[in-house]
Design brief:
Elements lengths: L5 E10 L3 H11 L4 H9 L4 H21 L8 E10 L3 E6 L5 E6 L2 E9 L4
Antiparallel strand pairs: 1-5, 2-5, 3-4
Helix pairs in contact: 1-3, 2-3
Length: 120
């Protein structure tokens, strides 16, 4: 099978949710038409990762409409979703006897790529 031709993409960086949680939601929308993917994200149980992916997907759709003015949005499919780990925020939690435990508040980078597929 040939690799799909990427029509548009969008990137959201430094999102304050872990990459592991976001990947669980990203796996649900990969290789789906954008209308179907938006519906899945709207009703997903993991609210924060789904909200981030929905926002990035809507941005990619808008980028496709600007880049190819006559494109039909119904033919767009989520070709690829990449979720990478971003920088972690380091915080300190006080511990007994004057010690301190480190807390890592993880961030992630989300990349959504759209391709065009004819027919259902």
């Amino acid at each position: 099978m040939d690799a799909p031709i990427i029509v548009a993409y969008a990137v959201t960086r430094h999102v304050r949710v872990s990459a592991q949680k976001t990947r669980l939601v990203a796996d649900q929308v990969r290789e789906r038409f954008v209308g179907e993917a938006l519906t899945i994200l709207k009703f997903d149980q993991k609210k924060k990762p789904a909200l981030v992916l929905e926002k990035t997907l809507r941005s990619a759709i808008a980028n496709a409409q600007v880049k190819v003015p006559g494109i039909d949005v119904d033919t767009l499919v989520v070709a690829k979703v990449v979720v990478d780990q971003g920088p972690s925020w380091k915080r300190i939690r006080p511990a007994p006897m004057g010690r301190a435990f480190r807390i890592l508040k993880r961030t992630s980078h989300v990349h959504v790529y759209l391709a065009e597929r004819k027919g259902r």
